[in-house]
Amino acid sequence: MHINSDKLQLTARRWPLLLLMLACQAGADEALDAAFERDVLIIEASRFACYRFDVWLAVDRAQQMRGLMHVREMTDTSGMLFVYDSADYRSMWMKNTFIALDIAFARADGSIANIIANTEPQSLQSISSTDAVMYVLELNAGTAGRLSIDENSRLLWGPVFAKGSGNDERGDPGS
Hints:
Radius of gyration: 19 Å
CATH class of the largest domain: Mainly Beta
Number of helices: 4
Order of helices and strands: HEEHEEEEEEHEH
Number of domains: 2
CATH architecture of the largest domain: Sandwich
């Protein structure tokens, strides 16, 4: 068996870089995990496609103000879901957010009102919903386009899932 020593040395040099990248990602996840609860969200992108995301939940004012600030990378299947007590027009900005995002604004029933794709990191420009919404979902830039997530899509999560499933508020089938 022949072992290419040049290739082995190159691979060995890449390990520290790979480990550093993984440690940075783990550190970012740990900081977010300490500040936010996590849950699973499904996006119904069409009749034939649903996608699963692990999301951090921003449910109180302090969490919503922090959002994804200072996060430098996020896995493709992660995101942040901002959950509000009532439907209203919502605005976001990218201050201290170092990664470009796709931002989806969703109504109380989970239907997406509008998406702002590929937002500019660290911008102070207001990014707003076109309708009264109860949820704002932040995903890595390009995710919405790649997965065909648009205004015909729907978020399925917690109370939204129960509302859309034909069940009453307790999750029991209607009589």
